[in-house]
Structure formats: structure tokens, C-alpha cells
Amino acid sequence: MVPWLGVMETKLYFFFFFFFFAFICLSSAFPTYLKAVCPTTDLYSPNSTYQGNLQHLLSSLYSKAKYGTGFFNTSYGSFPDMVYGSFLCRGDVSADVCLDCVETASREIIIRCPNQKGAITWYDECQLHYSSQSFFSVVADHPMFSLHNEDNISNPDQFSRVLNEAMTSLVSQVAFDPSRHLFATKEVNITAYQTLYVLGQCTLDLSGSSCYSCLLNSVAYLPTCCDGKIGGRVLRASCNVRYELYLFYTRSAIAPTPSAIPHPTVRTTDEGKDGLSFSTTLAIVVPTALAVVVILSLCYILLTRKAIKKENHVGNESQPVGSLQFDLDTIRAATDNFADANKIDEGGYGTVYKGILSNGEEISVKRLLGDSGEIAEAFKKEVFLMAKLQHRNLQRLLGFCSGGGERMLIYEFVSNDCLDSLLFDPENRAQLDWPMRLKIIEGIARGLLYLHDDAPLRIIHCDLKVSNILLDGKMNAKISNFGMAIGWVDDQTLVNPHRIAGTYGHFAPECVMHGQFSSQSDVYSFGVLLLEIVSGNRNECSNQPENAENLLSNAWRYWNEGQAMELIDPTLSQCCQNTEVMKYIHIGVLCVQEDAADRPSMASVVLMLSGDPSTLPMPRLLPPSVPHRAEPQRTAGELEPSARELGEYNAEIISIDEVTFSELSPR
Predict the structure, then answer these.
(1) For a Cys-Cys bond, which of 315, 391, 465, 662 suits 506, CB 3.0-4.6 Å?
(2) Running DSSP on this structure, what letter comes out for residue 80?
(3) What is the pLDDT of residue 58?
(4) Per-residue b or e along 373-403, where b marks 16 or more CB atoms closer than 10 Å to that residue's CB
(5) Domain 144-250: which CATH class?
(6) Distance between CA atoms of 568 and 287, rounded to whole angstroms?
């Protein structure tokens, strides 16, 4: 034996174990951080009782993670310093990975949210949540955030259909699993060479119906955050969903490997000349291990940077009100001093002009007329709300101008005007073919879902109708006109202080009769809008006799008789099938049911629009009724969002000329 060979083998042993140890460390000790949210400004004092209770709680969560349960919730202390907490590990990760993630999360959450009485943090492998208020067994929709892959899908229509079907099946599989794991994955072939992988999970303290509701809302948000992307996820405090075109979870941790699969045979040097020598084995293993370490290190760095980039991308996109003010001279120059040639619309509220800023950007200027308190408050409300909202199916507010006797709202310019001018015009309506109308319906639904469930300040629009739907150059629907909107926190019924005037066709019965608005009153208005888009007819009823048929009762009758084609716009009669039209009329009828409790949520509506018509629930047996000549119950009044509407928000007062705004930032 050559003398130096033993020394070399010793060194090889050393390097082998060094890289093996490094490999293990890199693959298990670094959970992939996604986001932390500190949803309250309520702070605890250093060395306080609450801080001590929080430390005990985090230690208890880490201790329970050692048992490999994957989920645990507990509380520590007594009122008023009690702390509630939980952790949830992804259903396919090992006990060791779960433990590492919970340990990291419990250590880092107090760094990312210092002195906060409530916080939640998400990692790819787990989430950890604590609060001074109990959140156990309750669907917590907020906070919520989303991530998506930057790459676009090459076959969006087919992909959306397959994704929706997979997610719809997955939601039921997770929520109603008899084993109560509340976790499932699914694999679906898109093409012979492309597979879709989806995952869904709920916290184990939820009931099946609560889990179902949480997942349903998350799936409904995917088109908003991740439309056309090859991968995306939505994470909430109570549940999460994800899809990718690659296998991102561990199959073996979900289902046992079939016994028919043979185990690999391990050969040693004792097997003779046919086996590999130890030196040869090391010569192969060491460079491979080194390469793996280097690759994993690079991947970790890249993934961390990408997560940070995505976190920034999905952060708070709302704008502070003070940054939106335009100078009056700028607007005068952009509109050629409000020249008639630039006038694009006119109504009782004022006039809308097209303008071009000095940088070439086209704008729409809504110049309000009058100086009444109602006009001033409506202006203030619309600026306040629109500064908080950013969604592709909402008209984007660029700014405002207030001063010199003027009140103006400056919006993005939308080239195709409002839906009203096309849908009810005998000549222009032919431009709206069946696929385009479906695209408009789905766009309105997604915008409304954002307002109800996912906006920084959730909104009831209160005035959804065809004249408030704009169409851009690609015929994407954009909801506009938020002068009557109300901010809200829970699914409560609120009183809108506006006087309800004009045609009542798009208002829900409870709005007209009692001035009561909720998210379900917006659903009613959406149902009316859907039926108007399908039929090409207005739902006018304010001047009809009590027993006259209107669009809603006609829709119910034709749907009930299976004669959907009797309702459809005649220009579309050769462009679609009866069964497809029936589906949309069915959804419309569900939305306009008289009792608000019978109407679906917008999250359910979005799923219905792209789902199987055979899964749609049945409406009540009586046709919807619409009040014809009810007297308005409300009078104009204070429009500033009340404390009850806004919940626990901080108010920062910003004075803009003669108008005062309350700019809200979530606690």
C-alpha cells in the first residue's frame, strides 16, 4: 500500500463529511421566508406581563412542534394580558422541517414585528400567528397576501379552465376529507407534456364548512392576483392555496410509496471487481456534493431575493391622499381650458373632459358642478376611497384638483367610454359579441370581489349599473363612480346616507325600502347588470304598474321554463348555445333573489362564472320582486366613514384647500 494513500483517504473522509454536513444544513436549516404582517398598532411595553406571556407562548409552540403534529394552538396568561397563538406546517413537510420552521418563525416574528401585540408570519414550510384577541376556530380572511410567478402561460384559456376545475375539486377534497387533515394536493394533465400541481390547506381548528368558505374565497382571488401566470398562491391566516407547473410538494409525505416499486440495490467493495472501489466512490461523491452545496447556496440566495421582490410587489399599493393633488393650471392646460371639443360626457353631477398632460399621458377629468354640501361630501368620499384602491377592473384615480371654486377628479383615460353607450345602442351593441360580453361580466365580478374581500379598505359600491362600467381599449371592464360607496369591515348591514333617486332597477329591495346596504346589495346589482348584458335590455321599473313584468321576472320565467334563448339579445342568437346562456341567466337569478341572505357572495359568483353549470345551487321558487314606487328613506348627510364602518383604523387629518380628508392606514 502506498504510504500517502491513507492520508489522502483521511482527507477525503473529512471533505466528504464536511460537505455532507453543509448539504444537510442548507437543505433543512433555512425555511423560506415569505412575509410578515403586523396588523395592529397596539404595542406592549418592554418587560411587561404581556411580553413575558408572549415569550412563554412562543416557547410552548416550539415545544409542541417537536411532536410532529403539524398544527397546534394555545393561549397563555390571563386577561388583559392573555396571548393566543398557533402554528401550521405545510401538510407534506417532515417533522424535522416543521420544527425548524416553527423555531425560526418564533424567533424572527418578534424581530419583524417588535413590541406588537399581534403578528403573523408566513414561510414556505409553515406559518405562525399570535394575537391578544382569540382567533381560534374562526375564518380570518385578513391579513392576506398573494405571490405569483413572473412567467406567463402560453395557453391561457385552456390553462384557466383546467386550473378552475382542479381548484374547485381540491376545495371540496380539503374541506370535507373524512380524515380531517384539511390538506390535499392534486395533479392534472394540461397536455401530454405539461402537468398542473395544486395544493390547499386550512388550519385544523376550522370546521369543514369554514374551511370550504376560506378556500373558496382564496381560489376566487387567484384570477385577480395571478391571471395568466404559470404559478401563484394566496395565503390567509386560516387557509392557503397554491398552483405551479412543477412539483413543489413532497409526494412521499402525502401518500405511501406503492410496494411494487423496487428499492435500489446498494453495492459495496465487498462484492468484488464488479463493485466500485471506495476511492472511486469518493472521487464521484465529493465533487457532486460540492456542486450540490454551491447550487443550493445560489438557489437560496436567488429565492430569497425573489421572495423579497414579490413581497414588495404585492405590498400596499394604495396612494396617500396628499400626493394626488393636481394644480388647477395643469388641468386647464391639459383640457385646453375645458374646451367643448374635449368634452366626453355630461350629466347632473357635472362634465367629463379628456385631457393630455405635458408628459403625453391621457387623462379623464371629472369636473363637478355645484357647491352643495352633498357635492362636497361626495367629492371628498370618492377621493378618499379611490386613493386606497388599485385593481385592473377599477378605474384608476390619478389625482384631484380642489380650489378656485373647482372640484375635479382626475382618472386614467378609458378609451371605449361606458358600457351603457354600447349595450343599449341599436347600432353599437353589435360590437359586443358573446365572448366579449362574458369577458365584461367576469371583469366586473373580479373588480367587485376585490372591493368586498381584498381591498385595503373593503367597499360596498352601492351604485353598480351599466353607466358606471367603463371599457378600455381591450374591452376590459372598469368599475367607476364611487360617490355613493361605503367602507366596511365585517359583512354588516349599513345605512347609506344618500337619497336614492331615479330609476330603482339596479337597487336591491332592502336599499329602496329601508336604505340598507351590504355586500349582498352589490351582488343584487351585479345580477341585474349580468342580465342586462346578456339580454341587451334595461331593467326599468320605476314607472311600471305593480303587476308589470320586468327584466328580472322575465329572466326567472325563461330560466324556469328552460327557454334562455327567449331572453338573449337577438344579435347574439346565432353565437351561443342554450345551455351556456342558461348558466349565466341562472347565476343572474341567484344574485337577484329578494332575500339578501339567499344571494351568493361575490367569491362564489366568480367561481360559478367559470365552473360547471351542473353544480349551481337552485334559487328560491318565487321570482324576484322589485319595488316600483317606494319612497326613498334616507336623506343626504355626513359621508365621512364612521368608526363603526371603518373598525379600528387610525385617522390622519390632511387639509386640502377647503376640503378635509381623513386618510386611513390600517392598524
Answers:
(1) 465
(2) T
(3) 94
(4) ebbbbbbbbbbbbbbbbbbebbbebbbbbbe
(5) alpha beta
(6) 69
As a CATH number, domain 30-131 is: 3.30.430.20
Reported pTM: 0.56
Backbone angles phi and psi of 314, in degrees to 5 = -100, 15
Of 444, 439, 441, the C-alpha closest to 478 is 444
Phi, psi of 86 (to 5 degrees): -155, 160
| CATH number of this structure's domain 321-412, picked from the four choices 3.30.200.20, 3.30.565.10, 3.40.50.720, 3.40.1190.10 | 3.30.200.20
Residues in the chain, pLDDT under 70: 1-29, 252-323, 348, 371-372, 488-504, 541-549, 621-667
**Which amino acid is present at 91?**
G
State residue 273's pLDDT score: 37
What the block records as the C-alpha cell of 164 is 378552475
Residue 73 backbone dihedrals phi, psi, to 5 degrees: -135, 150
Identify the architecture of domain 419-636 in CATH.
Answer: Orthogonal Bundle (1.10)
Residue type, 45: S
* Of the candidates 438, 431, 437, 382, the residue with the CA atom closest to the CA atom of residue 410: 382
Q: Give CA–CA dist 481/468, Å, rounded.
A: 6
The secondary element (H helix, E strand) that includes residue 649 is: strand 649-656
User: In angstroms, rounded to a whole number, what is the distance separating the alpha carbons of residues 36 and 464?
Assistant: 35
Cα–Cα distance, 99 to 368 (Å, whole number): 60
Distances in Å between the alpha carbon of 354 and those of 143, 475, 589? Answer: 38, 19, 38
What's the pLDDT at 294? 56
411, HSE (Cβ side, Cα atoms, 13 Å): 27
CA gap 21, 563 in Å, rounded: 70
Cβ atoms 317, 454 nearer than 8 A: no
What digits encode the pLDDT tens for the residues 446-482?
999 889 887 777 888 888 999 899 998 888 999 988 8
3-state secondary structure 323-338: HHECCHHHHHHHCCCC
| pLDDT at residue 655, rounded to an integer | 35
Number of other CB atoms surrounding residue 40 within 10 Å: 17
What are the b/e assignments for 526-558, b being 16+ CB within 10 Å?
bbbbbbbbbbbbbbebeeeeeeeebbbbbbbeb
List active site positions: 463
From the number of C-beta atoms within 10 Å of its C-beta (0-12, 13-18, 19+), residue 616 rates as middle
d(CA 505, CA 466): 11
Asked if 30-131 and 144-250 have one fold, the answer is: yes
Q: Where are the domains of the chain?
A: 30-131, 144-250, 321-412, 419-636
Query: How far, CA to CA in Å, does 286 sit from each of 4, 13, 22, 269, 289?
Result: 19, 9, 12, 18, 5
Supply the DSSP string of 351-416, one letter for each residue. EEEEEE-TTS-EEEEEEE----HHHHHHHHHHHHHHTT---TTBPPEEEEEEETTEEEEEEE--TT
Contact 226, 146 (CB under 8 A): yes
Q: d(Cα 230, Cα 194) in Å, to the nearest integer? A: 11
Q: Considering Cα of 18, then 23, then 28, then 29, what sign does the dihedral take?
A: positive
